[in-house]
Amino acid sequence: xxxxxxxxxxxxxxxxxxxxxxxxxxxxxxxxxxxxxxxxxxxxxxxxxxxxxxxxxxxxxxxxxxxxxxxxxxxxxxxxxxxxxxxxxxxxxxxxxxxxxxxxxxxxxxxxxxxxxxxxxxxxxxxxxxxxxxxxxxxxxxxxxxxxxxxxxxxxxxxxxxxxxxxxxxxxxxxxxxxxxxxxxxxxxxxxxxxxxxxxxxxxxxxxxxxxxxxxxxxxxxxxxxxxxxxxxxxxxxxxxxxxxxxxxxxxxxxxxxxxxxxxxxxxxxxxxxxxxxxxxxxxxxxxxxxxxxxxxxxxxxxxxxxxxxxxxxxxxxxxxxxxxxxxxxxxxxxxxxxxx
Length: 341
Description:
CATH topology of the largest domain: Butyryl-CoA Dehydrogenase, subunit A, domain 2
Largest sheet: 7 strands, mixed
Number of strands: 7
CATH class of the largest domain: Mainly Beta
Strand content: 15-25%
Strand order of the largest sheet: 5-6-2-1-3-4-7
Radius of gyration: 21 Å
CATH architecture of the largest domain: Beta Barrel
């Protein structure tokens, strides 16, 4: 799948069977209607199995977030199907011009994970000649059909190589009014997930995925050390001991970081579901703990990697793949502190 740059059909069938792209989609639209704490454990587990699988499930499921703000009829049409999954971007790198009945939209958006198998696409456009309350360009989200989108196959990263995170282009596509939406508008469903702010939602989701990838990397290191034990015990006993000690220490450190992360997300979710709001400080803390978890995942992989020798450099080694995946997911902007600390 890494060589092809996308998941194989049998894996997508498993995802469809388990409705993993529909974790947040309401039950009325043939989804699972999960809360955030349950979904985060799924993201971590899928990412432990394989980094690209975890990322695709995290991003694909996250698209269900928009089921609450798309108008009812297009939402039912776009989300209800067994294989329904969107790809897209939140960057406002498109433009849209108002005409009778809808808009003419054009644009180019990068890093659209799942582009090759998406059943529809969402992307943000600046509305020509329209301003928001602050005097800036008004931005709205648009849902595009596959036939309106050109996929530019330019995804060639260090890790998460099987996620088909390509650029998409739209040129002069007509989008009816009902397929334009505002993710900040009041949701049509009462499920708490649709009222959860998007930034901490993304931060927590990506942190869970990074945790799964890092745990898998340490598990691969442990198996590697066991396989090399007889050889290294005779030739490099100190190196073997250092690798075993490092893996044990960082496994514990990751567990501590994961507990801090999940405890806070779980407790604040209960409050949010019951009361409908959280203090601003709580939202910031969710972001901070998500970033701390991602930093621990990255540090764990960096600590063990120099002790692996040349085996860690082989692209076909699970050790190398999981290491590359960890460093790719933790590079996402929402997991990096703005001040670089």
